[in-house]
Amino acid sequence: MSKQFTRTEYEQLKAQLNNHAYHYYVLDEPLIADAEYDVLYQELLQIEASHPEWVTSDSPTQRVADQPLSKFEAVKHARPMLSLGNVFAQEELTDFVERIHKLLEKAGQGIKEINFSAEPKLDGLAVSIRYEQGRLSQAATRGDGTTGEDITANIKTIQSVPLKLRGNDYPDVFEVRGEVVMPRDGFVKYNEWALANDDKVFANPRNGAAGSLRQLDPQKTAKRPLAFYAYSVGVVEPAHGLTYHSEVLAWIKSLGLPVNVLNKVVAGENGCAEYYENIGAQRADLNFDIDGVVYKVDNLAWQDALGFVTKAPRWATAHKFPAEEATTVVENIDVQVGRTGSITPVARLKPVTVGGVTVTNATLHNEDEIKRKDVRIGDTVFVRRAGDVIPEVVKVVLAKRPKGTSPFVMPTYCPICATKLYKAEGEAVLRCPAGLSCDAQLKESIKHFASRKGMDIEGLGDKLVEQLVDAGLVNTPADLYHLTESQVGGLERMAQKSAQNLLQGISESKQTTLPRFIYSLGIREVGEATALTLATELKTLPNIMQTDAEALQELPDIGAVVAQKIISYFAVSSNKEVIAALLDVGISWPVIEAPAQSKQPLADQVVVLTGKLNVFTRADAKNRLQELGAKVTSSVSAKTNYVLAGENAGSKLRKAEELGVTVVDEAWLSAYLE
Ligand code: 9MJ
Question: What are the catalytic residues?
Fold first, then answer.
């Protein structure tokens, strides 16, 4: 029989789960592991199955409604949801701050410096969530600011939105406003899933958030990775009586709602400008898209004095980052051959500024992607640049497609070496199998070999690599080490001094490290981290070359795919020849500390301690033995290798003698430790 629960126990369990959700989502400091949470959640489900009459709307089990909606009802906002004015340039920010100073002066509040609440401007969907008597009662989109759509069922599926406010000290009516976003990691994962399941792929996280909230079936919305960050309040009854916006944010957080940790109170225009720079520098690394920052006058009385122009407050503005998406025209589509022979279609674009940088090329990834997006020469396309990643074509503006275009067809033969291309089973990528005999792959391999993370050859830039290959001077990485001054000096635009510097750089690169050498070989799937693992775990090049797939997979972070790539690489005779030639020219590295075993001279030896020890305590002796690799057990058997016997040893010593097990004393252990 399963345990019977009382109503009080049920309420306590519910409160416990809500508390864990708060620590996890709002404080980002979980108190228990996910699996432990799941156990408690299952328990709650069981109780609710026996007592359906106890279930209330704030139970964590009540997040996902069974029934899809037929449409979204209109919701009139009790207080309008504001929009924000924009500034783009520093001068506009100056104007914004000066205007506030002037207005406040007129209102009889001459202020030296104004504090602002500076906040990242999340690029999602603005929503208003209403709590009555602490329980989530309604959620609506911003709509036109006056009327939005009722998305209560969808908002309830967002785990970080509490169904009940925290504590007991909440107002009767509490409306919180904020942004629903799809975090970047969730967006990537969701799209991978969607692609594999023939479901809708989102062009960007903002569309992901918007599309998910517009979904009529909450069961579907529940599967979308969404997050909510609060940034202001609407109707609050009774009034909160706080003085600063930053206090309101802290209060919202104390009621259990997530508030962005990057929010900060800054002083004056300089504080704003510094914040803008600082957040801009972090932008690429954040887990959510932002399109700028927001500055809000922190003092709420001053906000009131400043008031509004139409729908936007005078006391706040958005300072936008340069756009990361733009439209332009595809002038041509080329295919590029990568270091590993991968064929990547690339759109050559009419130059366009995206996020402050001029973009002329954008990747189309692979054959499947170009087919899915149906990008054609002449098309107008959306181009996106996010952080440091290569710009990509997001989608085609079909309405602007010129007449007479045809779908792009991938080539059958390598555009560089004319070898027939192939596609490995289960891979989306078309490849040229020619290896280093394909000039494109040779060039990319040499660039990789010489790169900073690889052999770090000073003075050997991409252009020079191309010249060396085109001149027929370099056909394998080892050829670099045979170059002469007259050969290099004979290249176009190569002064004698530069030629000497290059040769010196090449020569100096011979003294390297094993991880660098492994990385520089350009084995597929072996990046800097894997190269380091191979070197530190396996210590020597011959060891790395001989370890089998099974043993490779026992190394940290090496899975079946990577192991197979390593095995395949070393199985190719031309690769082994390249390595031999490189070692021949004198490439070497410091020996990596002796294999772990030799520091553990008692590895796998079974030792039993018995009798009274004088030099060591029992615990100490056990620890030391284990450090030396030994297994310390308590009973003597045929598997025991040593019995360490102290004074007055009894039955264990006799057993050891019977079985012919080696008996040693404390001096033996001391000798090992020395
Ligand atoms: C965003 N999108 O992150 C506001 N916002 O305040 C922040 N939006 C806002 N504040 C008043 N952080 C209207 C909109």
Answer: 121
